[in-house]
Amino acid sequence: MEIITVDKAEIHAVINQAEQRCTDSGARLTVKRKQVLSGLLYSKTALSAYELVDFCHKEYGYAIPAMSVYRILAFLQNQKLVHKLNLANKYVACAHIACNHDHEVPQFLICGSCQRVEEISVSKATIKSVRLSVEEAGFDLVSPQIEMDCLCHDCRDH
């Protein structure tokens, strides 16, 4: 797990915003939930539950069972604080936790070399067009999430 250099005050502010969003929806962001979310916020790449187990052990000095991390991730996903990348079976913190407005549909650019993930938005009109094409082909769209295999410019330039 590669930790990015981030201002701890910035991470703390995002955690506070996440806690407020949970409170507003009648949920509770417990200490362990905050710690797992922190691991995702500090990471440069998407993380698996087992990588988050390692993060908690190294950062906070305790062993958390993988099943607990999976439950925490399900909670965070339900609260729209994290996204699951289905192809990699890993998770990333939502790039819009601290925003107070509605967003377009999130899509994910994943560098095939360094595994860095960037969340971008695709307009609802574009997704509506895709959904229509899918239905015309005789299918139902289960999830509009797209995970694109990319090469970031840093890796391209090296």
Structure report:
The chain has helices at residues 8-24, 31-42, 49-60, 66-78, 124-136, 153-156, and strands spanning 82-85, 90-93, 105-111, 117-122, 147-150. It has 158 residues and is α+β, with helices and mostly antiparallel strands. A hairpin with a 4-residue loop joins strand 1 and strand 2 (90-93). Helix 2 packs across helix 3 and helix 2 packs across helix 4. The protein is globular, with a radius of gyration of 17 Å. The two termini are 21 Å apart.
Brief overview:
This protein is of the alpha+beta class. 45% of the residues lie in helices and 16% in strands.
Brief descriptors of the model:
158 residues, alpha+beta, Arc Repressor Mutant, subunit A, Dna Ligase, domain 1, 2 domains, two-stranded antiparallel ribbon, 6 helices, disordered N terminus
CATH topology of the largest domain: the name is: Arc Repressor Mutant, subunit A
The named CATH superfamily of the largest domain: Winged helix-like DNA-binding domain superfamily/Winged helix DNA-binding domain
Helix fraction by DSSP (H/I, runs of at least 4): 40-55%
Q: Main β-sheet, in a few words?
A: 3 strands, mixed
Structural class: alpha+beta
Low-confidence stretches: 1-5
**Average pLDDT, all residues:** 90
The global form is globular
How many structural domains in the coordinates?
Answer: 2
Q: How many runs of DSSP E, i.e. beta strands?
A: 5
Task: Record the strand order, biggest sheet.
Answer: 4-3-5
Q: So what's the CATH class of the largest domain? A: Mainly Alpha
- Succession of helices and strands: HHHHEEEEHEH
What value does the Rg take, in angstroms? 17 Å
Total DSSP helices: 6
Strand fraction band? Answer: 15-25%
